[in-house]
Amino acid sequence: MLQALLISNGLVGLDNYYVSNELVQYTTCLITKDFDPDLAPYDLLVVPNGSDHVAMLKIKDRVRAFLHEGKALVCCDGFFTAWVPGNQWVMDNSRPTRDVRYAAGPDTHGLLRNLDLDELNFSHGMSGWWACGYIRAAPGAEVLLADTWQRPVAVLDEASTPGRMLLTASGPLADVSHAGRSESAPVTLYRNFLHLLSTPIVPAHG
Amino acid sequence: MAKIGLIFNGVWSHYALATAPKYRDLYRLLYIHDLDAAAVQDLAALVIPFQSNQAVLAEKQAVIYDFLAAGNKVFVEGDSSATWLDAQWEDRPVNNYWWVTDPARPPVAHTDYGHPVYRGLTPRQACWHTHGVYTRVPDAAEIIQTNDAGDVITCKPTRTAAPCWPPPSTPSWNTACSKSPTSTTTWTSSRTGLAANGRRPAA
C-alpha cells in the first residue's frame, strides 16, 4: 500500500476527497507558519487544488530530494511559485472558453485508460471549464493532455528527476468515489496514476 | 494606497486577483500565517475569500474580531467554518451553467436590491455561482440573498442587529456583551457572502 502525505491548506471538505483505501493510506499535514514536513516516510506527496504555494516554495529543496529518491508527486493546479522541479503552471484566461478542447498525448503508461475526454471538454455543455491556465512542461516530460493551442494541461514528468510527477492545470484530482461520489474523468486519471505507482518495475533483462 | 486587505493562504486565485492590474491598487495581500494586528492597522476592510485556511483563521480570529470592533468592515466568502464564524456553511453542487440551461431562473432567486452592495445591479449581474449555502446564520443577521429553497446566499448584520458584541479581549465569548455601533461583517456563500452581526461563535 502506498503511503501518501496530503498537504492540507485547511480547506473545508478536503478530507472527503482523500479517503484511505486499499491502494493508499493518507496522512494529512496541515500547513502552519512553521511548515517543514518530514517526507521520508512517504511514497507519494499530494498537493491538491487550493494549496499554499508560498509554503511549498519554502520546502522546494525537500521536495526535490524526495523526488530524487524515486518517489512521486501529484500536484493539481495553480503552482504559481517555482517549487515543482522543471515545470511551471501559468495563469492564463485570455483564450475563449468556447474554443477550448483537450487532446491526448502518447500516454505510454496508460494513464488515460478508460478516461472519457469529453467529461473534461464539457461541463453541462460548456467547454473550457476544466483547466485553469496551462503548464510549461519540462524538456522530456510527457504531455498527457494538451489544449487547443497545444499547451500542456496534464503532464507526467519522469525526466526531470528519478521520481514521477503527475501535474495538472486543473482538478480536483482525487478518488472521490471512496467518499460516495460518482466516478469522473479526474477520478480515473488519479486512480490510474496510483495503480502505476503500485506496480513494481520489472527490470527489462531481469 | 490599498485599503482592503485580502487574506491570502498561498492559493493562486487569491494571488491572481490581488495582483491583477484592475485590482492591485485596491487590495493588499496579507499572507495568513503573517496575519496580526499590525498587518491590518491601516486598512479599512478585510476580505476573507473562498478557499481560505479555516484552521488558521480560527486560531487568528481575534485579529478579525478586533478589526471589526474598531469599526472596520469584513467580507467573508464561503466556504467558511463555524469554528470561528457564527454561521453554518454547507457544500452544495456548483451551478455555474444556469445561464445555459435555464437563464430565466438563476440559482440566486431573491435579492434585496435596496442594499448598497447590490443596488443598481440586474438579477443576472447579482447572481453568483455558488459552491454552497448558509443553513444557519445569526438570528439578528439581515438576509440579503436567498436561493429558491430559502437558503441564505448573502447576509449582513445591521448596526441595530448587533445586540451582543464581546469585547475583543474577552476570554469567554459567552460573557459580557457590548454594542458595536460601527462594525460591519458581510458574509457570502462561496463567491457570494454573508454579513453577520459580528458575534463570535459560542465557545
Descriptive overview:
- The complex is a heterodimer of chains A (206) and B (203).
- With 206 residues, chain A is of the alpha/beta class.
- Chain A has one domain (2-198): Rossmann fold (3-Layer(aba) Sandwich).
- Chain A contains 5 helices and 12 strands.
- Chain A has helices at residues 14-17, 53-58, 60-68, 117-121, 185-198, and strands at 2-8, 24-30, 44-47, 72-76, 88-90, 103-104, 122-123, 126-127, 134-136, 142-146, 152-157, 164-168.
- In chain A, helix 1 (14-17) links the parallel strand 1 and strand 2 (24-30).
- Chain B has a single domain, classed as Rossmann fold.
- Chain B is 15% helix and 26% strand.
- Chain B has 5 helices and 11 strands.
- Chain B has helices at 12-19, 37-40, 54-59, 61-69, 98-101, and strands at 4-8, 27-31, 45-48, 73-77, 88-91, 108-111, 132-136, 141-147, 152-157, 184-188, 193-194.
- The model of chain B is unreliable at 160-183 and 190-203 (pLDDT under 50).
Kindly state the mean pLDDT of chain B as a whole number? 79
- What does the main sheet of chain A amount to? 8 strands, mixed
Give average pLDDT of chain A, whole number. 93
CATH topology of chain B: Rossmann fold
Q: In sequence order, what are the helices and strands of chain A, one letter per element?
A: EHEEHHEEEHEEEEEEH
Assign the CATH class of chain A: Alpha Beta
How many structural domains does the protein architecture of chain A include? 1
Beta percentage of chain B is: 25-35%
Which chains share the greatest interface? A-B, 28 and 26 residues
Share of residues in helices of chain A: 10-25%
N- to C-terminal separation of chain B?
37 Å
Residue windows where pLDDT falls under 50 for at least 5 positions of chain B = 160-183, 190-203
Dominant shape of chain A? globular
**What is the CA-atom radius of gyration of chain A, in angstroms?**
16 Å
CATH superfamily of chain A: Class I glutamine amidotransferase (GATase) domain
